[in-house]
Amino acid sequence: MIEILKAVLLGIVQGITEWLPISSTGHMILVHEFIKLNFSEQFVNTFLVVIQFGSIIAVVTLYFNKLNPFSFNKSLIEKKETLSLWIKVIIAIIPSGVFGIIFHDKINELFYNPITVALALIVYGLIMIYIENGNRKAKTKDFNSLSYELAFAIGFFQCLALIPGTSRSGSTIIGAILFGASRIVATEFSFFMAIPTMLGATAFKLLKAGLSFSGFEWTILLVGSLVAYIVSVLAIKFLIDYLKKHDFKAFGYYRIILGFIVLTYFYIII
User: Fold this and answer.
1) Rounded to two decimals, what is the model's pTM?
2) How many domains does the chain have?
3) How far is Cα 234 from Cα 249, in angstroms, rounded to an integer?
């Protein structure tokens, strides 16, 4: 029962931090330090990736009509626009897919540690605040005006998320805004890029683990994913509503504070 409660808590953390630009990895490292799952290291590593599946389904649920090119409610033009959006998403994930396959293990070996996570939280928090203080005017205000070239360029920013603590959503949103996208377009495009990216990571992790889990371990995975789904739906709705009136500076300040908390805990307290 205690392990199920831990899975619930980790699912809550995953659901919130995956979509807000505050680094799910940074939070998972900190939270898991206090509520470690009593399973093998391989299963825990798999769990922390696989519960992202719940977050993916949340995006698909909320944006199903927008992402479905075969909807009967869409005109031929709208269907072509949806297919074009998917092509842009696929183009955007190519850079991180290539770099991830080549350098994933090496990056984890070199950078998966508290000091890297803390510094990434702080540095990208400062960048986020700097960008928002620049008062940039958005040139790309809808997905039709988001070019294939711009999608590919945004994809390179997702490569930065290979560094733990950077935040996949944070890096892609920063890149999109720098290239002239509005906050809503940048944020939603980041959501859509997550679908194939996280599906690939989940499938890879499950296949690597060999799917050889006990019944209780499958229960833990299911509980964590279900909670992540429910919380992700709420987090995504919150973020979109928030951005209609506010910018990303609050998230930047939060990242900086969390970064110093991580540094303090791992290098002063323990």
Assistant:
1) 0.89
2) 1
3) 21
